[in-house]
Specification:
Elements: E1 3-5, E2 8-10, E3 15-16, H1 25-33, E4 38-45, E5 52-59, E6 63-70, E7 72-73, H2 74-87, E8 91-97, H3 103-116, E9 120-123, H4 140-143, H5 146-158, H6 162-165, E10 167-170
Parallel strand pairs: 3-4, 4-7, 4-8, 8-9, 9-10
Antiparallel strand pairs: 1-2, 5-6
Length: 171
């Protein structure tokens, strides 16, 4: 069953969300094997502000869960995208975030991922998991700074050419 999503043709409506299931080629091959139409790569930074952070979840009477997973640096994601495009039939979205006012970092990532074969860029402007660790607007903090958000989006849509060549998705 082919699906049209924002102009991209997916072979199925199943998209694996960004997270631990989308950070290695082995996992992307499994997503491909089991029928995913697309994947969104693990959250990617231009420069990692931190490697990973333990997270704790607890549901009274049901137990708890401790989780820690690393984010990706954009060069890692570039290699992952190249492998995915060579070894799978998946549509690949890249979930990216960066310091809000450093437009150059956003563009370097966007261009490198586009060159690697990414089908869409998913600008992560609301991730609450990274917000407390950042001193500058990033993740959830970018979405809260209207002027920073507007500046980034206007530039990315009008001057970078990314919108014309690939899809630009806003998370």
């Amino acid at each position: 069953m082919m699906v049209n999503f924002c102009g991209l043709k997916l072979r199925s409506p199943f998209v694996v969300a960004p997270g631990p299931a989308t950070n290695t080629i082995a996992k992307l091959r499994k997503a491909d094997k089991y029928g995913a139409g697309a994947v969104s790569t693990k959250l990617t930074f231009y420069r990692l502000p931190f490697r990973g952070k333990a997270r704790y979840y607890c549901e009274p009477r049901h137990g708890g869960l401790v989780s820690s997973d690393s984010r990706m640096e954009y060069r890692e994601t570039v290699e992952l995208v190249k492998q995915a495009k060579n070894e799978t039939g998946l549509v690949v979205f890249c979930n990216i975030t960066h310091m809000g006012e450093d437009i150059d970092g956003w563009v370097v990532m966007g261009e490198a991922l586009q060159e690697a074969g990414a089908d869409a860029l998913e600008l992560n402007l609301n991730c609450p998991n990274i917000t407390p660790a950042m001193k500058q607007p990033a993740g959830g903090r970018v979405g809260g700074f209207g002027t920073v958000l507007r500046k980034n989006l206007v530039w990315l849509r009008t001057e970078s050419g990314l919108q014309e060549k690939r899809q630009l998705l806003i998370d």
